[in-house]
Known about the structure:
Elements: H1 11-21, H2 44-58, E1 74-76, H3 82-89, E2 97-100, H4 106-122, E3 127-131, H5 144-155, E4 159-164, E5 174-179
Parallel strand pairs: 2-3
Antiparallel strand pairs: 1-4, 3-5, 4-5
Amino acid sequence: xxxxxxxxxxxxxxxxxxxxxxxxxxxxxxxxxxxxxxxxxxxxxxxxxxxxxxxxxxxxxxxxxxxxxxxxxxxxxxxxxxxxxxxxxxxxxxxxxxxxxxxxxxxxxxxxxxxxxxxxxxxxxxxxxxxxxxxxxxxxxxxxxxxxxxxxxxxxxxxxxxxxxxxxxxxxxxxxxxxxxx
Length: 182
């Protein structure tokens, strides 16, 4: 948009305006009062946080049962770059579907995993999550479903990589699986 200069005001218009407005008195500007000095910044929240630390250290505000238990699962098929597994561990792949194996026996879990991965492959899914649990109620032999899931995934030719999920996605109680492209 081009800037145009304002139109010139002719003498007749200026005279009519002065008659309509009437007598005016000139405005003398006054100086603004000086601003009050601002106070120096003070880190109130930092001091409050620092004062709360000793009390928080003495108070066990978390449930030790919620902490991660067990070993992390991790696997990368030969011939694929290690950066692929790193990206999977960092959660850089979008999980497109998941299955939960809780309350299943080994035979049911094995059939469920096979059916789930076949269905994922049929739909062209690339990344899925299998929730196997941490095995906290397993006997001395250790987490049955976790070991079964690890063994089954390593044997499948359509699995490129898998790793234990990030803590907010199930941690060591779930595994994120990267499948071959269709």
